[in-house]
Design a protein that fits this description.
The protein is α+β, with helices and mostly antiparallel strands. It has one domain. The protein is 30% helix and 29% strand. It has 2 helices and 6 strands, in the order αββββββα. The chain has a 6-stranded antiparallel sheet with strand order 1-2-3-4-6-5, with helices on one face. Strand 3 (74-83) and strand 4 form a beta hairpin. The chain is elongated. The chain crosses the membrane at residues 6-24.
Length: 152
């Protein structure tokens, strides 16, 4: 085996290892958040009560890190997902609230986020931006702040 090939293999293994490690860290952070705020970490299954038809969620190719609970008497489901497939896909954190938009605090109604309503739920996520961005999933601190603002 020549040394260039071995370097490429090592590089690819490092990239794969970093992705696995990053996914594991995110999962642990979502589990910790769920525990701290009294939510349940569900994993990779979206509750059937969250509407999919007629929303952008219908375009997701995978869903993971689902947390479910109540904040100020309002049901909240948050999760990470991938929209689309292949090179054109993009990842986002979605917050779904079983309430109209008026139940949100001002932190959830900021410009630049897509907000959709379906079947009594309001769904919010940052839309796809043009260009390359490493930050695709919402920071845990921001997610916690957005969940805390529900029903205020």
């Amino acid at each position: 085996m020549n040394s260039e090939f071995a370097l490429w293999i090592a590089f690819i293994l490092c990239i794969v290892g970093l992705q696995i490690w990053s996914g594991w860290r995110r999962k642990r952070a979502m589990q910790k958040l769920a525990n701290e705020i009294g939510f349940v970490y569900i994993g990779n299954t979206l509750p059937s009560s969250v509407p999919v038809a007629g929303t952008e969620i219908a375009r997701t190719s995978s869903i993971w890190n689902v947390i479910d609970g109540e904040r100020n008497g309002i049901r909240v489901v948050a999760f990470d997902c991938r929209f689309g497939a292949g090179k054109g896909s993009w990842r986002r954190t979605v917050i779904a609230v079983h309430a109209p938009r008026t139940a949100f605090g001002t932190v959830l109604l900021e410009p630049g986020f897509d907000t959709q309503e379906a079947a009594g739920w309001t769904i919010e996520f940052e839309p796809r931006r043009m260009g390359f961005s490493l930050q695709q999933l919402m920071d845990i601190e921001e997610l916690e702040a957005r969940i805390a603002a529900v029903g205020r």
